[in-house]
Amino acid sequence: MSAKVWLVGAGPGDPELLTLKAVRALNEADVVLIDDLVNEAVLQHCPRARIIAVGKRGGCRSTPQAFIHRLMLRYARQGKCVVRLKGGDPCIFGRGGEEAQWLRERGVEVELVNGITAGLAGATQCDIPLTLRGVARGVTLVTAHTQDGSSLNWKALAQGGTTLVVYMGVAKLSEIREQLLLGGLAADTPVAMIENASLAHQRECRSDLSAMEEDARHFELKSPAILVIGAVAAATSLSCGSEPAGDEQTRAMG
Predict the structure, then answer these.
(1) Which helix (H) or strand (E) holds 154?
(2) pLDDT in tens, 178-225
(3) 155 catalytically annotated
(4) What is the pTM of this model?
(5) Which of 14, 86, 89, 168 is catalytic?
(6) Total Cβ atoms within 10 A of residue 236
(7) Catalytic site residue 168?
């Protein structure tokens, strides 16, 4: 049998957001290597697969990437249908590109299956359109956590005129705030901080650039969370959840 690995996006958490192609790959899988942030409810679509946890979480004990590579290669060369199941989309801060390249260099066929990314799903759950005619002409997805520890060009991002969606930014709120302000972004630029995107316990905190760090502290914002920064984050929603709790800028969703 030919060796093949599927790199599958499981979406942000809600199992109903899986694509039909992802479900088909899971149904055919012999081995599924699953990330920490994948909702275990999606495993109902793996009726015969061996499930192997290969979690990677910031600040926590993680499975080495080299070990994940070797596992995928070993099982693929045994002729098994291998699925590497990732939260969100495998090619948006999910190492899908580098894993695909590594496997193809060793003669393994790879197929990528898109998943809905947390930045899109979280914003949509809060009725925030990431692009809006006359308000936001584009959207920029960035991660605040870089492999080499370097900082992004926040000045360029501040002046780009697009909605900013920041992944893995909870631990760097102070830097993000300071650098965007220095870059020229207005202090009253709306910000939405969305925790556990698409899950039943999703929460959001509405703020602005100047106050977001303090508001996040009062809200006890925790990872995983995404930040939506830009005029579209001022959108209000009657379907977004409960009434404000204490602070009129803060709303908990449940």
Answers:
(1) helix 154-158
(2) 999 999 999 999 999 999 999 999 999 999 999 999 999 999 999 999
(3) no
(4) 0.87
(5) 168
(6) 10
(7) yes
